Amino acid sequence: MTLKRERLTDLQAGANFIPRHIGPREKDIASMLELVGASSLDDLVEKVIPEDIRMEGQLELPAALSERNTLSDLRRTAGRNQMFTSMIGMGYYGCVTPKVVLRRLLESPGWYTAYTPYQAEVSQGRLEALMNYQQMVSDLTGLDLANASLLDEGTAVAEAISMANRVSKNKGEQIFLDADTHPQTVAVVKTRAEALGLKLVIGDPETELNADEVFCAVLSYPGSSGEIRDYGEVCKSLKATGAISIFATDLLALALLKSPGELGADIAVGSSQRFGVPMGYGGPHAAFFATKDEYKRSIPGRIIGVSVDAHGNTAYRMALQTREQHIRRDKATSNICTAQVLLAVIASMFAVYHGPEGIRKIARRTHRYAQICAHEIGRLGYEVKTGSFFDTITVHVPGRAYAILAKAREKRINLRLVDGDHLGISVDQTTRRSEIERLLSCFNAKALKGRTLDQVDDEVSECIPDTLIRTSEFMVHPVFLLYHSETELLRYLRKLQVKDIALDRSMIPLGSCTMKLNSTTEMIPITWPEFAHMHPFAPLEQAQGYQQLFEDIESMLCEITGFDAVSLQPNAGSQGEYSGLLAIRAWHEANGNSNRDICLIPTSAHGTNPASAVMAGMKVVAVLCDEEGNVDVEDLKAKAQEHKNNLAALMITYPSTHGVFEAAIREICDIIHENGGQVYLDGANLNALVGIVQPGKIGADVCHMNLHKTFCIPHGGGGPGIGPIGVGAHLAKFLPDHDVVTGVNPAAAGRKTIGQVASAPWGSASILPISWAYIAMMGSDGLKKATQVAILNANYIAARLRDHFPVLYTGPGGYVAHECILDMRHLKEELGITVEDVAKRLVDYGYHGPTMSFPVVETMMVEPTESESKQEIDQFCEVMISIATEIAEIKDGKASVEDNLLVNAPHTQKLLMGDWNRPYSKQQAYFPLSYVEADKYWPPVARIDNVYGDRNLVCACPPMEEYLEAAE
Amino acid sequence: MSVKYTEDHEWVSVEGDIATFGITDHAQEQLGELVFIELPEAGTELKKGGEAAVVESVKAASDVYAPVSGEVIETNSGLDSEPTKVNEDPEGSGWMIKIKLSDVSELDGMLDKEAYSKLIS
To answer: Out of A327, A331, A950, whose CB is closest to B36?
Structure first.
């Protein structure tokens, strides 16, 4: 037999990533197609997706790159970013990620591929880490409790204002904002206030604040200029009128300063970036939010609380979810869902690693460098405007600001240009002696002549007044004292990680969440220094690599979605919704239709939609769905016509939240346009469209893309996410811009846009290489195939499980889109078995439960994504069938209704120690299928008591005794 | 004294010009174990059909609407620490709000026990 000789080109790597990303092998695809009744992937798509929305031809994207070439391309791009020492400050500071945290956490799939901790029993590790974060924030701010992160400092201030608007006893209509606040925060607040019709007054809190007329005041502590002011009296006057005082503050400064809580603050917010998270040209970073106990039910975002499990042991969970948008919808306290969990966890571990003494030392060193700068620059004859400061000073340099700035750049240092006469200088954890010497020489070539920094150090005196020096303790909990050696932290991180089910263990079939592969090649570049250590306000000429990356990815996303322009600024899907709706509003206003404020939203929509609409100043009108879960077109038509004079927009998810390609989508879009509205397409399910349907070509005017779903940014255990929006040409000029960095929205050409929706100009820039790499390695064929296989995998699961659990909604031909809903409502009615019981039983088999009770109560929504192989999907199906058998035994009376494998799930190791008095065997409980024996997942806690946790809210680390006992 | 019901699952009982109301047994059953109840302050003017209180279980948050208009004179402070009273005895110790009726005629046309039972069956 002679083998046909391959050509060299056949042997080259080429597009070698596609079969790494897509799970099923070619022969698997063939057999799976057979089961679902399709002859090919193209045939399947023709059966599933309506013909009138499918694109002709294919996406015009560059040919797919190999993994190696992708990294070398990105290396070149990164190389165009120039690494300068940043002394710009303004809320972004250099810091050192402890290397053990970098490798064992930030770069570890066990941490970054986890999902939001909705299934608390399989999330105890990161829940504990988030609890540490909350404890650290609440200690440093001196307030009763903190949440588990918000998106960035600007939006955190905006969230604080929204909360104050609800809880304030002063019904004044004004917001007072400290003039010495970071300009990007001011800009974000302006956008929010304008949308809600709230009046914003900016001024000096000590002289220009009229406490009677405001419902809240935002006080910057320290200010953007660096100045630290004692706002104790201001807080008192606000309190006297019932108004809320909000501190925008800095965690490292608080190690030395009297806490906001001690000064009388009601809320404290800020960024925890400098606790070990790289600046990343703007993000992602976790913002913190702390407040008093009396306001706990109004806090935005996710809060981790302590509860007990079925055996009475301490267990963590997300608390008070009824505050959140997925339950409260248009009455929610905020639209935030995905937060910045991975970054909050890094910040918490920075605190765990350094402990209170370590943090104080970093703070004191940083402060000392700032004092030395101030002292020496003063000696050189310049006036230092900041009298009391922590790490930032503002210097008066009459007429010389540009000259000194230029000199500093020659020495590879960036300073903050305040105006032609003033410069800002910020130092941080990374500042070195040599940098201070270089900096001083920019002010005067003879600076320090003959003197050493140690001599200067002896001359400086404390500038923070005694009344503002911190005397209270912080981070005294043992978790901040036990893990200071690298060995201890290494093991602590491992101990926490193995408690959780992440994608490195098994499929996470969460419907609507798209838990696909986050490949190593995609992840590697994000920690390269050229991407990681750039300040977002660095001069554009130093950030050419990033600028090229943005241009590339914007054009890729335009091509994929069929839109004309993309904004990368929104740093979560919820922010994308809010931005898109603001753009629609701005367009209506520009057309003289400022009355248009009605937003139609189908009842099947995710709760974030109505919450975002309210934030954008719109009124929500619900549209009914029919029995198949599709939008009731007649009802839509009637409501659109009824509101035709005031119709602003329709928000619609496509394919629908029910996992179906609605055939009427074009008609729906036409109805809205005919009645003067715009169509906002929620791109949560974009993974079912890429390469086959372009939302921009089927009638949508705006669409957000969850880069953390469809485009491979990992979920990070609940963030980071990115939610860029694509828009039609008519909306491009309204897309977000930035108050500090120019040229963010070139289409605006200097005209008024919707303003800023996030702190950073291009949102969470440092994780964009992930999506870029994914698109580059897949190319148009790979992306299309990913979509096809995602649809195949979902239909394969539906076909295999249909006889055991009814599949709730299907399109023509009985097909689903990229996810399927398994109906379990009858189980609750007949046997009292809930969808939660099934999800918890899956834990015994080593699986993370699918999405529960969304969009229909007592159902499970399963989304396998294209990355899961046939063997993994088959195993999951066998597990579901095994659970169906367990349920059948209850039904047949062979197993007890009250005491069975499901209601007692999950089964912990601890149970093995007592007498076994269950009516089923240990084997059935722990090793129900043979594969489990090889790699058993042991849940660290049994079923968690949700009611107990919400009735007895505790958001701090458990008491020391309990903690130490558990650690032993 | 007779008890009347709304289609939104509130009950109201009237004595003189004082009306006491809460949520029905059917409503508490639908919500599941309650964890928090937010009640208005005394002196608040309630409008028939407007939001009067919020009840929360771990999975749901629902508004309770005022079945009749009037000024709040008292709320059931015991619910603060024991929201389960509403689960255990919704039409007794689980009452929520007492108001001074501003318009007695609003009671006309409300459901009686029989009609309400029919509605939820």
So the answer is: A950
